[in-house]
Amino acid sequence: MTQNINPLQQPVHSGFNAASTAQEIIKGIDLNGKTVIITGGYAGIGLETTKVLVSAGATVIIPARDIEKAGKNLMGIDHIELEKMDLMDPDSIDAFSERFLASGRNLDLLINNAGIMWVPLRRDDRGFESQLATNYLGQFHLTARLWPALKKAGNARVLSVSSYGHQMAPFDFEDPNFVNREYQTLAGYGQSKTACNLFSVALDERGKKFNIRAYSLHPGSVYGTDLGREEPIDLYIQMGTHDKDGKIKPEVEAKLKTIPQGAATTVWCATSPDLQNTGGVYCENCDIAEIDLGKIEHRYDEPTTIRGVQPYSIDQENAERLWKLSEEMLGFTFDGE
Q1: Residues noted as catalytic
Q2: Is the pTM of this model over 0.85?
Q3: Cα-based distances in Å from 65 to 50, 92, 129, 137, 303
Q4: What is the DSSP code string of 31-55?
Q5: pLDDT digits (tens, 9 = 90+) for 111-130
Q6: Separation between Cα atoms, residue 197 and residue 214, nearest integer Å
Q7: Angle at CA of residue 213, ends 207 and 214, nearest 5°
Q8: With left for phi above 0 and alpha for psi between -120 and 50, is residue 112 left, alpha or beta?
């Protein structure tokens, strides 16, 4: 194994698998008295994660850009708090974090779940490409601001919901915002998810002494979310998942995860005793993922082959380089102290 890769990046044979559901994972787990923040916790696998953690006794705080939509989706769920926040707006992140810190509460679990995909080239007010800003830089900023509350918890976890999509692109340290290269939406998505993986590696290294552990994860190929709502249908057809009329092929749909299955790895990373002394790893199918050394054949029409983690996305030197670049881009130091 490469010397810059965490030796713990290998399956632990958890007893769960790709078909396991979030409710199966949470059985026997008591989260009474625990405080959780989940970005995007009001839709798709984020909403399922919210429901399952609440069912185990947690109080879940959900920062959302669209309060009206979030409120409708969360109606009837107890022990949740809905807050305004936009991951592409640094002032909004600061304001939300200040409100939470002022409450004096510990933060036991931070789940950076929100994300966008397959969007045309957009930039925020700072000139940052939108997928990088939402899927990674906003999460880095939020984690930094909430760090005092994570330290107070004494046994906290930080999760970055990444994706197999990290395999689509390494991080481009020379031109992360597509200023001097042609924009390709999947390259933008891929590098943002590679960044999530690298962030967890570097964050775990800083958090260990405070008993804060960090993980990144691939939820799986999940049917029924709105993540790909802006994707051109031609891309789906090209990947072999949809027919010429733009309809998903029944044999492909049958192999995709349900939303309860898609939330399972998040819940496993958030609560599993198997990870008590482990961090800085990338997980999938409710286990630590296998490193992809080029021996896994990937086919988009066969979701079970969409697995494995690229070494470049968990390399410790890349992780430290990205950490420094992130501080420069955001204009503040996150030293983890």
Answers
A1: 189
A2: yes
A3: 17, 9, 18, 16, 31
A4: -TT-EEEETTTTSHHHHHHHHHHHH
A5: 999 999 989 999 999 999 99
A6: 10
A7: 100
A8: beta
